[in-house]
TrEMBL record:
Its main location: membrane. It comes from Acidocella aminolytica 101 = DSM 11237. It comes from the Bacteria. Keywords: Cell membrane, Membrane, Transmembrane, Transmembrane helix, Transport. CDD domains: MFS_LmrB_MDR_like. This is Transporter.
Length: 502
């Protein structure tokens, strides 16, 4: 019980931090309307949170050593709660983006500390169960986000998407301070910190995400700002990696990548991040903008993904006792990839019935994709490196999510225009089908102009749908690559628990 209770408190904090990435997904239209935001601005409500998390998560190992696990988690939970309140009070899209970034920035450390703490609290076979719990949270929280968010928005309003965090956040803050006791703070590390490296990492990741998110909107390298951001991101991240390899106490331990299991685990974590976050970004957008679903309808349509994720947990725990984790992970990646491929057959008429099987194929294997990578990737490292390496490992999943959302946004923009031009070029009035449709719609709406406008909307909806299919195909291809990498992982023996630092 002395191990389970503090671990459970930390898992609640991790769940809240991950849930809030996607809790806005099914309510983006409502938030955009309430804040007078354009459609191409709304994505930043999710992306700002993700990129802020990405910047802080790699620092979590160093921050843990400075402040201790107890006080870092407590500060993170308190900051997450306060910034959640500010998000609910946002008055325009700019303030919302700032407060969402602050929410991700302050709450980010709750995620990787749970991963490393599981190795402290549990030994032997219990670590498989702990990894399954973590994998379930990591996969289920983003899946449940749109469902919970849709219900809250319809029952109350979008402001309560953030106010709902206040009471749980306060409870986690209090109990984390009372129960967690793993290591001791070492404030002297503040004097030895690689602050130039921290600055390079923040600038590099921030400009990289801006480049990915805004590139398609401004036609990529035709825009000078996008071009400069690309160069700054490349230069900053290159210098950051070189500096981290050169200094004695780097904030991110890239030397851990010399461990093959850890490197492959990071790559697989990146791909899984793309699949988890990008699909929860794409599906609500399709249901909202193409199908015209409300926030609640969107949430309920996505709900089977969360149920399938929960159903996969006992199956994974049962199989993990009997089979090699590498093959379980490979099977999970195959199933997830098939789910993405089945999404590619999407049409503008798809509703919850047609989306049911693809979402089950996506939700059920999530724990199979996440839990083995924790056990085989982080579990292959010596205890002394776990804290620093855990930050890098978790960053890869969130970076995959941020990159996936940004690239899917670019695919939607570019491919919608492409498909619309192709479809429009075939709408020739000399063709019998087109002239017949025009006559029917003219009679229905009373004027030819209204009929032409309706045909335009129908054509654009089809072009959008085909663009969504292209985005899901791209994600499926990423999982095909991941499946090929999974067999390269090596089975590992259970390491001893990291010793508490005094």
């Amino acid at each position: 019980m002395r191990s389970i209770l503090p671990f459970a408190v930390m898992c609640v904090g991790m769940f809240a931090a991950l849930l809030d990435i996607q809790v806005v997904a099914s309510s983006l239209q409502d938030i955009g309307g309430g804040l007078s935001a354009a459609q191409d601005e709304i994505g930043w409500v999710q992306t700002a949170y993700l990129i802020a998390e990405i910047i802080v998560i790699p620092l979590s190992g160093w921050l843990t050593r400075v402040f201790s696990t107890r006080w870092l988690f407590t500060i993170s939970a308190a900051g997450f709660t306060l910034s959640s309140m500010l998000c609910g009070l946002a008055w325009n899209i700019d303030s919302m983006i700032v407060f969402r970034a602050l929410q991700g920035l302050l709450g980010a450390s709750m995620i990787p500390t749970v991963f490393t703490s599981s190795f402290h609290y549990f030994q032997g076979q219990k670590r498989v169960y702990a990894a399954a719990v973590i994998g379930t949270i990591a996969s289920m929280a983003p899946s449940l986000g749109p469902v919970i968010g849709g219900y809250i928005t319809d029952a109350l309003n979008w402001h309560w998407l953030f106010y709902i965090n206040l009471i749980p956040g306060l409870l986690v803050t209090v109990f984390a301070a009372l129960l967690i006791d793993i290591d001791k703070p070492n404030l002297s590390l503040l004097r030895k910190a690689d602050y130039p490296g921290i600055a390079l990492m923040a600038v590099g990741l921030g400009t990289l995400e801006y480049f990915l998110e805004e590139g398609s909107r401004w036609n990529w390298f035709d825009d000078s700002t996008i071009k400069y951001c690309a160069w700054i991101a490349f230069a900053s991240l290159s210098l950051f990696i070189l500096r981290s390899l050169a200094v004695k106490n780097p904030v991110v331990d890239f030397r851990a990548l010399l461990n093959l299991n850890f490197t492959i685990g990071c790559i697989l974590s990146f791909v899984v991040g793309i699949g988890m976050f990008a699909t929860i970004y794409l599906t609500p957008l399709f249901l909202g903008y193409v199908r015209g679903f409300s926030a609640w309808q969107t949430g309920m349509t996505i709900f089977p993904t969360g149920l399938a994720s929960i159903a996969g947990v006992p199956v994974y725990i049962m199989l993990a006792k009997r089979f090699d984790l590498r093959w379980l992970m490979m099977a999970g990646l195959v199933c997830f990839g098939l789910g993405m491929w089945s999404f590619s057959y999407i049409t503008s008429e798809w509703g919850w019935q047609q989306l049911l099987v693809p979402q089950i194929l996506r939700g059920f294997p999530q724990v199979f994709c996440v839990a083995p990578s924790v056990t085989l990737g982080l579990g292959s490292l010596p205890p002394a490196r776990l804290k620093y390496a855990s930050g890098l490992f978790n960053m890869m999943r969130n970076l995959g999510g941020a990159v996936g959302i940004a690239l899917c946004g670019a695919v939607l923009n570019d491919r919608t225009n492409f498909h619309f031009m192709v479809l429009a070029s075939n709408l020739n009035a000399t063709r019998p089908q087109v002239s017949g449709m025009l006559q029917t719609l003219s009679a229905q709406f009373g004027t030819t102009q209204r009929a032409l406008k309706e045909i335009w909307h129908m054509t654009y909806a089809q072009a959008q749908t085909m663009a969504y299919a292209d985005a899901f195909c791209a994600i499926a291809l990423a999982f095909a690559v991941a499946v090929c990498l999974a067999p390269l992982l090596r089975q590992v023996t259970q390491p001893t628990a990291p010793q508490a630092e005094h």
